[in-house]
Fold this sequence. Notes:
Layout: E1 3-7, E2 10-13, E3 18-25, E4 34-40, E5 47-53, E6 58-60, E7 68-73, E8 78-83, E9 92-99, E10 113-114, E11 118-123
Parallel strand pairs: 2-11
Antiparallel strand pairs: 1-3, 3-8, 4-5, 4-9, 5-6, 7-8, 9-10, 9-11
Amino acid sequence: QVQLQESGGGSVQAGGSLRLSCAASGGHIGSTVCMAWYRQAPGKEREGVASINRLGTTTLADSVKGRFTVSRDNVKSTVTLQMNSLKPEDTAMYYCAASSDWSCDYRSLLRDHWGQGTQVTVSS
Length: 124
C-alpha cells in the first residue's frame, strides 16, 4: 500500500511563494507512475492543480500556469509543487495523490492513493 505524506504548507502574503513536497513510500513502483496535486477550498469541490508522470510529462491547470511548477525525483519518490506569485484564491488544503496511469492528467480525480493534505493560506 502506497503512503503519501505532504509537507511545506503554511501561511504567506499575496505575491509570496511556498514549496510543497510529497514523499511516497511502500507499494509497487508502478503505483506512482502518476503523481498529482489537488486542492480543496472550504465549500468548494476538490480540483486538480498539476500532475507529472514518471517520465516527467506535466499538466497544469490554467489558473496556475506561469506561477506553479511541478517536478519529481523518482529516486527519492518525491514530488514537489513550487508555488510562486501566490494569490488569496490559492488558499486551500492541498493534497498529493498517486496512481498507475501514464496519461496522468490533472483534471482526473481518479487516483488510487491520497495524502492527508497540507494547508496553504494566502492573505491579501
